[in-house]
Specification:
CATH architecture of the largest domain: 3-Layer(aba) Sandwich
Number of strands: 15
Strand content: 15-25%
Largest sheet: 7 strands, mixed
Number of helices: 14
CATH class of the largest domain: Alpha Beta
Shape: elongated
Oligomer: single chain
Length: 428
Amino acid sequence: MDTPTFSPNGPPLPTVRTTCEALLRSMISAAPEKHTRQISPPSMPQGTDSDWNARLAPARHRLTVIIGSAADEDVLRPLVRSLNRPVNLLSTTDADKDYPDHVTSVVYPHTSDRHTTCTFLKTEYPDLFRLFNTYTTLLEALQPDGLLLLWDGSMPPALWVSAAARSGVPVVAWRQTDTPTPAELSALARVLPPTTALASLQYTVREHLPVAYLRQTAEPRLHIGCGTCLAEGWLNVDACPLPGADYMDAEAPFPFPDNAFDYIFSEHLFEHLSYTGGRHMLAEAYRVLKPGGILRLTMPCLEFLHALLAEPDRPEHRRYIAWSTASFAPDVAADFPPGHIPAMFVVNHFMRLWGHRMIYDRPTLSAMLRRQGFCSLCYPPLGQSAHPQLAGMERHGEVIPAWANALESMTIEATKPLTDNASGHEAK
């Protein structure tokens, strides 16, 4: 579904949280009393938009976590900070606090013994059928990637499990006493403390509740740091996602199982990461690529800056220096004769502006990739690739002049070998 657009001059928009709670309130009386296969959300309360789907669009296709006690909060808070993916939190308490922006918290009604109540919503359900249909309707409206139930009893919450099954939503019930198996410890050893319950929970979510895109796509492709460039057919992720993209921090553990993607692409992101952050991104890209999968990175090139300093009077270099200083340091031109602005201003810009943290040369970048296990490295021209899925992906030339982007950028493609080589030894 397309993300809706709203007029900035219109009335204030209700948040996803208030919209979900209004949906729950209105379903209290509208939900059928008997088990039925045909459920549809009722009309929105008076004075709000009549389209539930439009209001809930920002929260759809997320991992949804169900918690039922304050004690679960202690487990959940560090978990959602580390899952590195968009999360909906459905809680029986008003738990909308101390969570990052990619977490939406909503209060939901729950069962207590034989009575069904929700104190926060000040509501009492007359029967479990009506509550069950409400759960089902909410899941069908949110269409979550998966449902994670945190529980501490001997039996998981039956109503949520049944509602998830009826809505076709994958579900995992996790007890706080669960501990990692030896296989889980081995898989987690590279990125997580191997003996914690949190590590077990992260592994469970990553392996058993993957994003829906992976289940629905025959040839999964991951676009990291997409910004405003949403590639069709790709899973577009960004640490500050705009509508149409999902949340993911490239310097945190990727929220995907091993061997999940055929292609990974990232343009003008790598230079914004620290060296250790970049090394982590390459390790995680290797892990989530399928054997034979391709990683393509495009970024500014340190050799270009060296050439700019060594030969500033080459026509293309002088043109670049003039354009760069006019665009980003216009006061500099008054201090130098026309055509003689030093290239060092451009170099300083690359090292200090736009959030840049590391500018790489080809030997260093190649060594980093080989160290993670990648092989068959090549540096194709910008926009070109032997793989049709990767050709024409670069869009930074729409942000700055295309000729300047081609001059300053380098592109590398690296392959994950068919035999896993991620032991720290270089692939030949």
